[in-house]
């Protein structure tokens, strides 16, 4: 076996655990892969390799190593792996899973411009987020302080902010079709890193095995595609060329402008993939962050009390928060940062690949190698964090209580493919969180403390929990 292993790894390739013949290290990723991979790095080094059923993969661990590759060698590590699953889902087009090159540049530029033009760059946009925050807290109020699972409400409210940019409109909280689409899409985010998905990547012929979670993944993807196609069609009605009302219109403008150009990456199919990717990338992550934040506030009443005090002192007479208030609320900022660090929403980032041969720490990594960035390992890197296993917002404050940025804080990743929704996510998290905590005190139903063990998937989310949002009297 050892001989086989040695032959499989090309010369100069980083070392790693011995693979089992044929399936390699696939099953070692079955439970808490981010934790397992961090432990492996203690044996094999900051940069080591895995064999995922014949797919040679490099794992980057700790802040220094992740920064060296994703930032210092940004272009080299900017590709996505051509895995059978991604090929089947989006044909390596769209935006998030697009191969590094002209297609990705065109789609990323269009998305960034649209996010600025229809989102953060528009004066009205903040007001629209605040309106959504009000719908959100009013809907929570309907529970009258009784226990409820906040998952669906948070998901609906958060996805509406992206919907405003993409479709120019929000969906009401009782829109069952939209909710169902988000539900099965988010199920796919979970399934995409399941054992079955990894097996499919290694052995694509299992497509013809009629049972298994990969079949569910394909069915969900087909249903989401049909739904998005219909919605895009409906929201592009009444479009006036060159006067875009939202991202879909802007995309159709670019599509028409490039019609006939043989190398254009714009297509109706890529529009559908991009819309789906933007919706799910924006919703799943920000929703999970807010759900964790609510859970930790109820878990640590003393931290919640300090949040309440800061909110009350800055927002006198129950005035609604604005983004300008952010600078005056270092503790709220510290809490949200600690939630992002501690809860590791996207623990292994989104899989990358080398766009050309790479040289790192004396190793040689061939072009096209799959790369996993262990962002969890960055957030518990002892070189940069004291007692990383403790939940402590204080680490983001100086001795005067001012907010301090920390270098080894990478929830949005780094480099060319870093999250394009970071600014939007930060706006949403601040406004939703402060509006929520301004109105409510969060506590668990008597005698029930939920687990903080996450539900595993491409993103980490809390297991479903019940919480009571009790109206508070603001102290001014
Ligand atoms: C990519 C995290 C919110 C859109 C990513 C990546 C991470 C991440 C870790 C992977 C980058 C890489 O390949 O290294 C987060 C977190 C969020 C958040 C923690 C919220 C707290 C959003 C929002 C949007 C968004 C609100 C848009 C609506 C994207 C897109 C990519 C991405 C399109 C792919 C970028 C590319 O491949 O060029 N995000 N994200 N994200 N994110 Fe986010």
Question: What does this molecule look like?
Answer:
With 476 residues, this protein is of the alpha+beta class. The protein is built from 16 helices and ten strands. The protein has helices spanning 2-8, 33-44, 62-72, 84-90, 102-120, 123-141, 151-167, 176-191, 195-202, 213-235, 247-257, 268-299, 301-314, 330-343, 375-379, 422-439, and strands at 47-52, 55-61, 352-353, 358-360, 363-365, 370-374, 440-443, 454-455, 461-462, 468-471. The chain has a four-stranded mixed beta sheet. A two-stranded antiparallel sheet has the order 4-5. Strands 7-10 form a two-stranded antiparallel ribbon. Helix 6 packs across helix 16, helix 10 packs across helix 12 (268-299) and helix 12 (268-299) packs across helix 14. The chain is globular and about 65 Å long. Mean pLDDT is 94; it is low at 1-7. The structure holds protoporphyrin IX containing FE. Protoporphyrin IX containing FE is lined by residues 95-96, 108, 162, 277-278, 281-282, 285-286, 289, 345-346, 349-350, 352, 373, 411-413, 417-421, 424-425.
Strand and helix layout:
Elements: H1 2-8, H2 33-44, E1 47-52, E2 55-61, H3 62-72, H4 84-90, H5 102-120, H6 123-141, H7 151-167, H8 176-191, H9 195-202, H10 213-235, H11 247-257, H12 268-299, H13 301-314, H14 330-343, E3 352-353, E4 358-360, E5 363-365, E6 370-374, H15 375-379, H16 422-439, E7 440-443, E8 454-455, E9 461-462, E10 468-471
Parallel strand pairs: 2-6
Antiparallel strand pairs: 1-2, 3-6, 4-5, 7-10, 8-9
Bound molecules: protoporphyrin IX containing FE (HEM).
């Amino acid at each position: 076996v050892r001989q086989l292993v040695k032959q499989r790894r090309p010369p100069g390739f980083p070392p790693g655990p011995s693979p089992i013949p044929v399936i390699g290290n696939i099953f070692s990723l079955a439970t808490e892969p981010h934790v397992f991979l961090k432990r492996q790095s203690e044996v094999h080094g900051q940069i080591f390799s895995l064999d995922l059923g014949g797919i040679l993969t490099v794992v980057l661990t700790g802040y220094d190593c992740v920064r060296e590759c994703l930032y210092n060698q940004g272009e080299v590590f900017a590709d996505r792996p051509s895995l059978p699953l991604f090929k089947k889902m989006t044909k390596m087009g769209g935006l998030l899973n697009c191969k590094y090159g002209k297609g990705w540049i065109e789609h990323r530029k269009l998305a960034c411009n649209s996010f600025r033009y229809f989102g953060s760059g528009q004066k009205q946009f903040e007001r629209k987020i605040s309106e959504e925050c009000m719908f959100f807290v009013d809907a929570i109020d309907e529970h009258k302080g009784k226990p409820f699972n906040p998952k669906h409400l948070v998901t609906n409210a958060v996805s509406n902010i992206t919907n405003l940019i993409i479709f120019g409109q929000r969906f009401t909280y009782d829109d069952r079709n939209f909710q169902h689409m988000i539900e099965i899409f988010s199920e796919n985010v979970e399934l995409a890193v399941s054992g079955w998905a990894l097996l499919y990547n290694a052995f694509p012929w299992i497509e013809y095995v009629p049972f298994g979670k990969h079949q569910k993944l394909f069915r969900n993807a087909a249903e989401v595609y049909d739904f998005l196609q219909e919605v895009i069609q409906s929201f592009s009605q009444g479009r006036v060329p060159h006067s875009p009302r939202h991202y879909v219109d802007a995309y159709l403008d670019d599509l028409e402008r490039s019609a006939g150009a043989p190398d254009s990456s714009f297509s109706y199919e890529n529009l559908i993939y991009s819309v789906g990717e933007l919706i799910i990338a924006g919703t799943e992550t920000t929703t999970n962050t807010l759900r964790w934040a609510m859970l930790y506030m109820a878990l640590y009443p003393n931290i919640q009390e300090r949040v309440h005090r800061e909110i009350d002192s800055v927002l006198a007479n129950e005035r609604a928060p604005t983004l300008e208030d952010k600078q005056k609320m270092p503790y709220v900022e510290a809490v949200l940062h600690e939630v992002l660090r501690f809860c590791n929403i996207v623990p292994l980032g989104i899989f990358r690949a080398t766009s050309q041969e790479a040289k790192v720490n004396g190793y040689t990594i061939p072009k096209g190698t799959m790369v996993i960035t262990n962002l969890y390992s960055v957030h518990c890197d002892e070189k940069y964090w004291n007692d990383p296993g403790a939940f402590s917002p204080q680490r983001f404050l100086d001795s005067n209580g001012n907010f301090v940025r920390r270098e080894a804080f990478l929830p949005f990743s780094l480099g060319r493919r870093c999250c394009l929704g970071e600014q939007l996510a930060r706006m949403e998290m601040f406004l939703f969180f402060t509006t929520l905590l301004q109105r409510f005190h969060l506590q668990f139903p008597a005698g029930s403390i939920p687990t903080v063990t996450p539900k595993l998937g491409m993103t980490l989310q809390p297991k479903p929990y019940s919480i009571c949002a009790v109206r508070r009297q603001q102290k001014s």
